[in-house]
């Protein structure tokens, strides 16, 4: 969904993405300045940027989470297999 027919759907160019981000930041800043005044606008804009940075960090960690889950699953399977083999060895030795 876009408002301009000449806008590109392929947003892989970093310059285009930066330009869009700058426009959103400027609109947000102007709104906060109008609504809350300079001092409170600075505080609220800072809170927004800190929140966005935190969300970015969480997203990065969330992307690596399946790798850790797979590693833990593999470790559990290896431990179970080792315990089963140890039990079998003990059973064979006692016979």
Topology:
Blueprint: H1 14-94
Write a short abstract of this structure:
The protein has 95 residues and is an all-alpha fold. It has one helix at 14-94. The longest helix has 81 residues, at 14-94.
Structure overview:
- There is one protein chain.
- The chain is an all-alpha fold and 95 residues long.
- It contains one helix and no strands.
- The chain has two domains: 14-64, no CATH class; 67-94.
- Helix content is 85%, strand content 0%.
- The model has no long low-confidence stretch (mean pLDDT 85).
Shape: elongated
Q: Rg to the nearest angstrom?
A: 27 Å
Class by alpha and beta content? mainly alpha
Number of strands: 0
Low-confidence stretches: none
Order of helices and strands: H
Instruction: Report how far the terminal alpha carbons are from each other.
Output: 73 Å
Helix content: over 70%
Mean pLDDT comes to 85
Approximate strand percentage: under 5%
Domain module tally: 2
Number of helices: 1
Q: Major β-sheet, in short?
A: none
